[in-house]
Amino acid sequence: MMEDAGARGPGATATRAHSGWTARLRTGFPIRVVGLSGLLVLAAITPGFTAAPSLLSLVNTGSLIGCVAVGMTFITLSGNIMSFALGATTGAAAIVCAALSGFGMVPALAGAIAVAVGVSALQGFIIGYFRANPIIVSIAALALIGGAAEFASGSRTVYAAPGVLDFLKGRVSGIPLTGLVFLASVVIGQAIQSYTQFGQRVMMVGSNLRAATAAGVRTWRTVTGAYALAGFFTGLAGILIAGRYGAATMEYGAGYDYSAIAGVLVGGTAIAGGEGSVSRSFFGVVVIASVTVMLLLRGFETEYQYLFTGLIVLAAVLLQGRRRA
Amino acid sequence: MGPILEARGVAKSFGPVRALRGVSFAVAQGEVRGICGENGAGKSTLIKVLTGVYRSDRGAILVDGVERRIDGPQDAQALGIAFVSQELSIAPHLSVEDNIWLGHRDVPLLHRRRALRQRAQEVLELVGLTHLSVDVRASTLSLGERQLLEIARMLVRNARVLILDEPTATLSDREIAHVFATLRRLKEQGRTIIFITHRLGEIFEICDSVTVLRNGYEVGSFAISEVDRAGLIEAMLGRPLAQMYPPAALTADGPALVVRDLHIPGTVGSLSLAVPQGRIACLVGQIGSGAAEAVRALAGLDYTARGEISVGGLHLRLGSVPEALARNVRFVSEERAAEGVFLNLSVRENLVATQLETLGTGGWMSRQRLTAAAGRLAGMVGIDGSRLRSRTRELSGGNQQKVAVGRSVTGAGKGVLLMNEPTRGVDVGARAEIYVLMRRLCEQGYAILMTSTDIEEVVGMSDIVVTMYRGAKVAEYAGDAIDRSRILSDIIHQETAVTETA
To answer: 202-221 in A: which are within 8 Å (CB) of B?
Structure first.
């Protein structure tokens, strides 16, 4: 940008600590605008991006990542960095949904949500009450959920009862239900963040745990609640996966946590907590999903997608680190 | 002989904010210069320009009469200008000696240990830490000793000009005496000291001259004999301050807070006291006396505390902040940034932090009610309404403290306000406002229990003073019996400081 160049010119008196372009980045606004418009240009010149099949794929990919990202946002906002267990939770919820579909739609959906909320809330309790390290707890949970699911499913693909989950593949006035679930998640998530006392407590706990304690917040409840909520939205993603494939294994959930983390970070929610929002994560997810689809269209293999997502996360983390300094 | 350090017309802006608008001052060798002014007057910016952290937009800095370009702390160090910040940079797990040499650029990779050791010993003597072994881990040092160690670090770097930013803010009186004795010794050696403080008493105690800043301008530099307290405050505020400490209301009601046998394992043996409604009681003691810990325990922040506490006649269970809040017992922390306010959140979110339940029913929260409630509280504590949406981090220390106090004000008329160090790091204008606020809350029916290491504040504000020493109550004074020297001798107790302070 032109102003950036100006700020670094000879007349500039910026100091080391506050110099030129990093100062611009600190405000956060231009980087998002630049990034998003750059992405739009890239998308426009990518052949076939605006074609119906790739847009559909964008919505599907984005929505699954997105539901997990909405949940992840609450974990990050509450000051617990992120969870590596949400991908496994997605897979487990999908398996439960498929397995219970024989009993009907309601048990399948309720079961999937209950399992996802249960395992996540338990992690939240361990982290909030015992002040356990959230990353380590999530890694332990990842192994436990994976192991338990493999054990229960006998490492076989679990198929859904025919027809029960097909409505999930439906569309409402042309928009896939998956996308609508994601949009609803964003709206509900943002409403919880902005218009509930719980949402405010999450921000307080994430901003400053000690100050929240001194202000009379029962912090372990808030943290448990944030994880339970993360579990809920992750459970939704699991249900959508089960509906999409009509079957589930743990493999189906793999990678969603990672993309969700990327979405949250690119959206600009602070890793340290207490700053950011669900709607920011929405934009982050749009970016990540667009990049994924674009790479596919340009003929890159999946490993390049991982590479690219990794670079984006790294860049987001570095920028946040600069901003704090 | 010309000045050792001089600033000529130094100006510095941050975007639209003009922090310094042309400040000139000069310090002679061997001078102790105080710098005072309200928060936002430009003190820290000036110091950061002098030490090369910031480059000034305009103006010049002269060292020994020669204009110098100071590009970073290394340049400042090479010129003999050293800065001791408020947040000490001691590495607690290293020894005293390692801390002294840590980051020193003249220490080669392979060095002869003995010479360094000897030099470390010398500077420790210089700062009056003779009793300390250089091998002791820094974490075992008291706050005052750490402050002196920090000065020693600068001396080993041959600092001729020492700049100290509020060195006494967290120290007890005896430690302050130690630091001052050291500063006087350094002055006798011909070193120059620039001293920033909010405590006016200290300026008259240690400084030869004082520079007053206001809104980025230099109001003037005065020899200390030329000014008095009221004159200094007027220079800082730009208007005279009628009175610092507002008087207590005439009537006081029955006991609002009764503490019987408060016991905190390892900190407080047994403490009993009563605070009548409408009165301010102050627990006074050095760090380690248990005064601050006792107040924290009453706020529900200590799970190990035991005792019979009654608030307005009702029993209060210790160890739970929500229970304390249910009795309208509210707490203002001494660690503003770490525990007092949410720096990342907006001012309005901070103000309503302890009363979310009142903002909606069934767990919902109305943004309108939030804004209205915050606006009301802001008005009550004197925070500009236009700042409600600002991040609390952007406020001055004084305004942050007003936010912390404002959070404790509720519609409920009666309650107990617990305040640890109510004005630490708060400038003189905001300080006076906080004192007025405290008295107004008393009139509303609050009882205030506070702690303070600022003895002037204790004498000025307290209706009741309880002195403490090593976890036990020494004496209790009320009204006219509150006397500075008696309090001091109480809190220092049998280890009479006479021999040590020299």
So the answer is: 203-204, 207-208, 210-218
